[in-house]
Design brief:
two-stranded antiparallel ribbon; 1 helix
Length: about 130
């Protein structure tokens, strides 16, 4: 998220503001786009975190990860802290030499009592790697 070109990958629901020089807040359905030259043996990888204050209000949450409209996984989060995620994506789901879309949808948002603003989770990194 700290790379200068990171915002070029944002489609929706990812803060334009870099926090702590390393991460960004998300909303309900953070969506990213990635160009892939090769689709064989690709893994979607992400580092994300859920803050204690958000989970204290929402309780456990589900984070659904979809690639080009296919549900890759659902991760259940009940405790605060950083997570490293990595899962192979079937090559049939991916588009070679084209844009590929990843949606990381959280089922519950934290809502600020002060101003009604909402937050999903902390996104540190996301992308594909062989």
């Amino acid at each position: 998220m700290s790379d200068k070109t990171a915002p070029e990958h944002f489609v929706r629901d990812i803060s334009p503001h870099l926090e702590g020089s390393a991460w960004r807040w998300t909303l309900k359905e953070p969506t990213l786009k990635f160009w892939l030259d090769d689709v064989e043996e690709q893994r979607f990888q992400s580092e994300f975190s859920f803050a204690r204050e958000t989970l204290a209000q929402t309780g456990p949450v589900r984070l659904s990860i979809a690639v080009n409209g296919h549900l890759l996984d659902t991760v259940h989060i009940g405790e605060e802290g950083a997570r490293q995620y990595s899962k192979r994506v079937p090559s049939a789901w991916l588009k070679r030499k084209a844009e590929n879309t990843v949606v990381m949808k959280v089922d519950k948002l934290w809502v600020s009592e002060a101003d009604g603003g909402t937050r999903g989770f902390i996104l540190v990194s996301a992308g594909f790697a062989p």
